[in-house]
Amino acid sequence: MPTTLTLVWQQVLLSLHVLRDRTALICAGTTLVMTLIAIATAPGADPGPWSWLGLLLVGALTMLAIVMLVASRHPALSAADRQHRLTAAATFGIVALALNLTFSFWSSILLGLAMVLVARQALALRPGTFPWLLCATLVTLIPFWVWAALDAWDPGLLLLIPLAALAYLSGGHIRDAYETPAPDDRLLSMRAHRLGAWMGILLGGLLVVIAGLIGESSYAWISLGGISAAIFIALEAGIPRPDDQPGRYSAALCDGAFVVAAVCWLISIT
């Protein structure tokens, strides 16, 4: 008769099918890429092999915990299988936090709070959709966690918060602009929503440039952040889009503008 550990491990393997979904793959890819960028750009830090391996392992365990939590909500599961998946989720989460304590206590607090926030958003996702809000959350939170773990805290990280707020507003505008069918009670026209998204992207670029000039960051990178914002606006406004899915194209440009701005800012303050 299989032991409890064996049953839990079987449910872990079965739950990995979640990663075949496009939504889950995008979230996993965003987590990996942002963790690598955050480690590489941490100011004043010289992470060795353990730091790289340890933080990537913590990120992977955290992702597995959230995957198991999402998989436990499958309606066809029996009560026992659901319990095994929840057990695995809790185990992965606890191990991730314990491993992260080898870096610092405060980064573990941040990681725990991030787990809760990301898990809540992940549970609300629909399979097959683009998780733009969750990706924005990951892009914002991962540098805070990684830089705290490497004792490389910089006040410039706080700029990611208004950038995330602008990304949220702009992302909402660009998706409302191309919503089909258009709701009867729409308050703003399609053009007004697009203008709102463009203004958000422009403000994000200006925020990076102005904050960089005040804080004496790398002029090359803050310039790239500002120029890229203008380029993304021009692409959304003037480049022909596919007739079948114009909203997906425009949303990708809007989201990409803020990702580039955030990465440029991180590199500029190292």
List the helices and strands and how they pair.
Elements: H1 4-15, H2 22-41, H3 49-71, H4 79-100, H5 105-123, H6 132-149, H7 160-177, H8 190-215, H9 219-238, H10 246-268
Helix pairs in contact: 1-4, 2-3, 2-6, 3-4, 3-5, 4-5, 5-6, 6-7, 6-10, 7-8, 7-10, 8-9, 8-10, 9-10
In terms of DSSP E residues, the strand content is under 5%
| Main sheet summary | none
Structural class: mainly alpha
Low-confidence stretches: none
Distance between the termini: 56 Å
Oligomer: single chain
SSE topology string = HHHHHHHHHH
Report mean pLDDT, rounded to a whole number.
83
Please state the overall shape, judged from the principal axes of the Cα atoms. Answer: flat
- Give the beta-strand count: 0
Number of helices: 10
Helicity level, as a percent range? over 70%
Compute the number of structural domains.
Answer: 2
The gyration radius over C-alpha positions equals 20 Å
